[in-house]
Hints:
- By secondary structure, the chain is of the alpha/beta class.
- The chain is 41% helix and 17% strand.
- Strands 1-2-10-7-8-9 form a 6-stranded mixed β-sheet, with helices on both faces. A 4-stranded parallel β-sheet has the order 5-4-3-6.
- It is globular.
Amino acid sequence: MTTIPTADDIARAGEAIAAHVRHTPIIEIPGHTLGIDATLVFKLEFLQVTGAFKARGATHYVATQPIAPAGIVAASGGNHGAAVAYAAREFGHEAHIFVPTTANPSKVERLLSLDAQVHSIGITYGDARDAAVDYLAEHDATSIEAFDDPVVMAGAGTVAMELDQDDRAQSGRHLDAMMLAVGGGGLAGGAAAWCGDRMRIIGCETAGTASYAAAVEAGEPVTVPVSGVAADHLGARRIGDVPWAALSRAKAESVVLTDDEVLDAQARLWRLLRVVVEPGVAAPFAALLTGRWVPEPGSRIGVVLCGANVVMPAVGRTPVVETI
Length: 324
């Protein structure tokens, strides 16, 4: 039976990571300025250390679980790899991050800046993953799942906990719904575990990364083809078993957007908040702008902006999204 973290687990995770991650702010936007009859409460999680929510899950794991003598291993040049490297450094462990030789140099530079030992092997991320598996077979090291782990998901759930608690303190009432992007499901699953049936949970994806929508249709996690503008940061191919258990128990809703819709929402977020997030991160906002999900009139809607890891080239050129 799949173990889903409880609200108490998430509260304890918040205590365990408090000294090591940022309590990111919220900002309230009147929806009528966008033609939406609701108040939007944005969680600015892109201000998190390493630029994405994943630092919470990795830090919670390292803070509370036994770590093998040879350190921690991950195959990722993006958000998960940076999160593992950061958490390892925080607690004095070695981090061995495997990336292909074709990885963007800026990603490798970021990992090195977090004191990770970077292993550049092969041409594809599949090659890097294979190399990481070989390393784990030969060394007494620890591997941390990116999303399909109850400890990692409890850490991710602290995003929803903070949004829920901070908005209640500010507004004096509960949110009516919370909207989150879905990749492997750790963030949305953590929100479902925290919120339970107290509010609606809406998981938002692109058509090329719709692992949760496919699971809802099939009644269980299935593998989906991955493509499009969000492939490198939401393209988990299959939603995790632990997130699926939490999302399905909470009867979380599913909204699927087109690439053009999330790109438009990404641009609107720049104009509205002056932030550049990854295209898939804008999916919840896109669901509201397009009317693919319509809130109850006068409701308060939490919108999580979970990451902004983009490589900014020369001024005036288009940002390049980093891989998960």
